[in-house]
Write a structure and sequence with these properties.
Elements: H1 2-18, E1 20-23, E2 26-29, E3 39-43, E4 48-51, H2 53-58, H3 63-66, H4 80-87, H5 89-92, E5 101-110, E6 118-129, E7 135-144, H6 146-195, H7 201-229, E8 237-241, H8 242-256, E9 262-268, E10 276-280, H9 281-297, E11 302-311, E12 316-323, H10 357-367, E13 371-376, E14 382-389, H11 392-396
Length: about 400
């Protein structure tokens, strides 16, 4: 890339020299504006003596305004040292006709107007001398690097994002591997106890089945996370009577609640009983079950309340899931929907989930064009708020 830049600058330099006649030790411009890139001529003090229209346009100015101004007037302060280093080159190095080029150097230039007053550019200086061999100034070729800089910035951002994803993936694999081992140890333990006659086969099989279900649940969640992050999780969207679906989920969960001091209820306006929204039935069931299951784990006694309410003026349906449990720890709240965040918080003894449910839940809501949030209730417990869109056709009905 640098060799190509130098080659281009040499061509421009030749064009510039060919467009001049030598008269009494001075260069006289003939066809300066025919040079196809922004360029100017300055004296040894970097006072601009001439420039082409492309150079003036680059600074959103005119040739008349730029002439007799110092080069530093169009250079950002952050690049002053670079310019000073370049113009001091002839005095600190032998001038050779075989090496009359200095640069290219990347600098930041400044224009008075425009959306981007400071912009990156590469400058190449060609030393110019009179017929006595004395340095009289420089031909400066300017290449605007704004687009290239944006591309570089995007590439660097993509690289940083990729590194972050790799770190998160490594962390996920490490934690997932640990979590997968967790139910395996009890399974081995039940088998060994039964084999030694220290536990009945029936008790051992009950324990094995419970741990196997946990292992299956974790494996399914890990698979879902993998599909979410690779954007391959599929959704079968159909119009569903959402409150009928919530009723079915509530009854199913009620039958599985083992805590006698915890109850669950569902409420919605009777007029909205048959309201339909477009959802993936299986994924919405997974979503509500995840949130309700979380509420059950952190509620020793009390109730869990599911409420559904249409907001027609906003074309939205709100689903609130509230509990009377321990609430959400302050340090957890900002990262509640991240992977494995809830594994180390709350009632540790009862926290037997995978730590992936809320992450998956958020992804499901997002795929439905909705939003999910959570907050602690003033009188204890927590509430999860799920907002799903209602189609315009349903709104009119």
């Amino acid at each position: 890339m640098r060799k190509q830049q130098e080659s281009s600058d040499n061509v421009v330099g030749k064009q510039f020299r060919n467009s001049h006649e030598h008269q009494g030790g001075e260069f006289v411009q003939l066809h300066f504006d025919q040079i196809p890139v922004p360029c100017c001529r300055v004296d040894v003090s970097t006072l601009i003596q001439d420039c082409n229209e492309l150079f003036a346009n680059l600074f959103k100015s005119s040739k008349d305004k730029l002439l007799r101004t110092l080069l530093l007037d169009v250079v950002d302060r952050s690049s002053y040292a670079v310019i000073e280093k370049i113009v001091s080159f002839p005095s600190t190095n032998r001038f050779s006709s075989s090496f009359p080029i200095v640069g290219p150097e990347t600098v930041w230039l400044r224009r008075k107007d425009g959306d981007n007053p400071i912009f990156p550019a590469t400058l190449t200086f060609e030393l110019v001398k009179d017929n006595q061999g004395r340095l009289t100034g420089y031909i400066i070729v300017v290449i605007d690097e704004t687009i290239n800089r944006k591309r570089i910035d995007l590439l660097e951002k993509d690289r940083d994002d990729l590194k972050k994803k790799e770190l998160l993936q490594d962390e996920f694999i490490a934690v997932a591997s640990h979590e997968l081992r967790t139910p395996i140890q009890p399974i081995l333990g039940f088998a060994l106890l039964a084999r030694k006659g220290l536990m009945s086969e029936e008790q051992a099989w009950d324990g094995v089945l419970e741990e196997a279900r946990k292992l299956q649940h974790l494996a399914n969640d890990i698979l879902d996370v993998s599909r979410i992050e690779s954007a391959t999780l599929k959704y079968d969207m159909k119009n569903e009577k959402i409150n009928h679906l919530l009723t079915s989920i509530t009854e199913s969960v009620r039958n599985e609640i083992k805590k006698q001091e915890v109850s669950i209820s569902l409420g919605y306006h009777e007029a909205e009983a048959d309201i339909e929204i477009e959802v993936d039935r299986a994924r919405i069931t997974q979503l509500i079950t995840n949130i309700v299951g979380n509420a059950i784990k952190f509620t020793d006694k009390g109730f869990i309340r599911i409420e559904s309410k249409a907001i027609p003026e906003q074309s939205e349906l709100e689903i609130r899931i509230s509990d009377t449990g321990k609430g959400i720890a302050d340090e957890v709240m900002p990262k509640l929907f991240e992977k494995f965040v809830t594994k180390g918080h709350g009632n540790i003894q009862n926290n037997k989930g995978t730590g992936l449910g809320l992450y998956i839940s958020k992804a499901i809501v997002k795929a439905h064009g909705g939003e999910i949030s959570a907050f602690n209730n003033k009188d204890g417990g927590a509430t999860f708020l799920i907002v799903l869109p209602i189609s315009q056709n349903q709104k009119k009905e």
